[in-house]
Structure prediction request, 304 residues.
Amino acid sequence: MRDVVIIGSGCAGGTAAIYAARAGLNPLVVKGYEVGGQLSLTTLVENFPGFPEGIDGPVLVENMKKQAEHFGAEYVDGAVVEADLSERPFRLKIEDEWVEAKALIIASGASARWLGLENEKKLVGHGVSSCATCDGFFYRGKKIMVVGGGDTAMEEANFLTRFSDVTLVHRREEFRASKIMLERAQNNPKIKFVLNTVVDEIFDVTQKLVSKVRLRNVKTGETWEEDVDGLFVAIGHEPNTKVFRGQIETDEEGYIISHGGARTNIPGVFHAGDVQDRVYRQAITAAGAGCMAAMEAERFLAGH
Ligand code: NDP
Prediction:
């Protein structure tokens, strides 16, 4: 039986672990399949306060882990594969083993959707990114391409024009983006739209950087190559809440609905980070949310 189990080892989970550990709650942190969360997929993080020279994303989350362990947090490999939140203590199956928890912090994040190309995975953090706010700065004056036709793609394309001209590639002619976001992008002279087109291949894994992509017009079948330095994949995110479906209240896409502060619909179960936040999705906001969740968990345990 644990006082607090924290699901997720990204910025939100790491910060929740530091706070819960310092409160003497000896939290158990379930690392999840994407150990270290989205930061583990980035290189230099330049917007996390306190690091004037920037810090490597993987180093930042590893430091949080060390800091949490120093105060008594315990990290375990694997993911929660089954959960029973119908009564307290909550029951979680972590791989093969059931664990009980008096309070639970869900910091399991949202995973970026990727195109599914073989080279894409190998180049994430080396020219392929899912976060313009995080990585746009590295492509000042370089060739930037954004993939997607939703609000995120429009927002990221607009944001990235601060640094360079942007080519936006979308697989259809119609857009999922809201009218206002779409028009803003269409009226931006620095954004070129390439429609009915998909990215078929990304080069160059041997150099460990993005140098060009092969595009294909899905209507004509025509293929061609274009030089690219930064490829921003903006085709949506999926919150990692499948295991709690039907128990935790979520919106139609699976994001946890907040009941104020870090509270979910279930007393004793708290949310932190991108699993609830579809707007900001930043390391620092996730860290702040982790702090809130741990403080609420501590108060909840003190009151019960
Ligand atoms: P969406 O699901 O809205 O859009 C995803 C886009 O990616 C679609 O255009 C889709 O194409 C395309 N896509 C999906 N899979 C692939 C693939 N395999 N290959 C190529 N293209 C693909 O996700 P968003 O992240 O844009 O938005 C998520 C939510 O967040 C929305 O509700 C949005 O309104 C909201 N949001 C709001 C913002 C704001 O108001 N400021 C900013 C950002 C997001 P297709 O259309 O053909 O399916």
